[in-house]
Amino acid sequence: MILRRAAVSAARLASPAAAIPRRTITQLHNEAHPNQPSSMRENLEFFKTFKKTTGQLGTRVAPHYRPHAVANNPPAPKDLTLELLLASGAHLGHATSLWNPGNQRYIYGTRQGIHIISLESTISHLRRAAKVVEGVTNNGGLVLFVGSRKGQARSVVEAAKIAGGCHLFEKWVPGTITNGKMIVGHGEVVEIDMADRKSPEGAKEGDPLRPDLVVCLNMKENYVLLHECGLLGIPTIGILDTDCNPEWVTYPIPANDDSLRCTQLIAGVLGRAGETGRLNRIRKAQAMDHFHGRQQLEEEEKLREEEQLRQEEKLKEEQLLRESAQEL
């Protein structure tokens, strides 16, 4: 019996299937795709020809999601898509046992014990919040971006930088807004006009400024900040996860606050909206300065013409007096 099994195994090894020669990946590629290039040089030439012939058709499809591109160049609110939110993980909520019943209208469903956030609600609420940020910066308001979790410092700083606001990525000191004179103290305050030009008088001694709008990326760790803003009537924008209370903020954005890509995307979109409002304000201020400058030039030209007419009339009167004196 043992000899028979050994003979069968030897016969299988000696079969033609076991004698198939090994082939390289390039040979297999050439056999499967005989009309496509195989080497790197041929591949480069193929893509150059393809780009030359069909590259001007007007269609460009991004091959994959690139979070570094979103971080360096955040999209505008009008360019935001559901695919981008889905790729950033904005739809992932917490376990169903941790949910807040006030977020039921923002929940799309449940999968494997985790709530799924409706991205349609996310994109609509995010665009509404972007309009609020744009309106505040357009009117010369101060926006404060807050994100105290690990990894949120860069997104908070970049958003505040492009929006022309302030940022905070450390723990909030209780009473900074409600009792700022005692905690922050007095300091130098620089006055700027609507075109972001500093006052020629320089810095003055004054009380600490209060933000006109607060954007919070992690609500649960900054409940004291949101409570202080509510006491003083300062509007707030916050990323609302399924375990957060929607009554803490004025403009909630239902999304995943545990994903750094999601918080970075939302902060970038809001920062871009703030930049749009700030640039519109500067453009209007410069246009008004140009208009007032042109109006001032017209008034000066009019005054010069009136002065010239008065001098001409005076010369005519003097000439008439001389002529009358000569006749006498």
Automatic annotation (TrEMBL):
Region Disordered, residue ranges: 294-328
GO biological process, one term: translation
Pfam families to which the protein is assigned, alphabetical: Ribosomal_S2
PROSITE patterns on file: RIBOSOMAL_S2_1
InterPro entries, per database record: Ribosomal_uS2, Ribosomal_uS2_bac/mit/plastid, Ribosomal_uS2_CS, Ribosomal_uS2_flav_dom_sf
Alphabetized GO MF terms: structural constituent of ribosome
GO CC entries: mitochondrial small ribosomal subunit
SUPFAM superfamilies: Ribosomal protein S2
Ribosomal protein among keywords: yes
Family matches, as PANTHER family: 30S RIBOSOMAL PROTEIN S2 PROKARYOTIC AND ORGANELLAR (PTHR12534), SMALL RIBOSOMAL SUBUNIT PROTEIN US2M (PTHR12534:SF0)
Family: Belongs to the universal ribosomal protein uS2 family.
Official protein name in the record: Similar to 37S ribosomal protein MRP4, mitochondrial acc. no. P32902
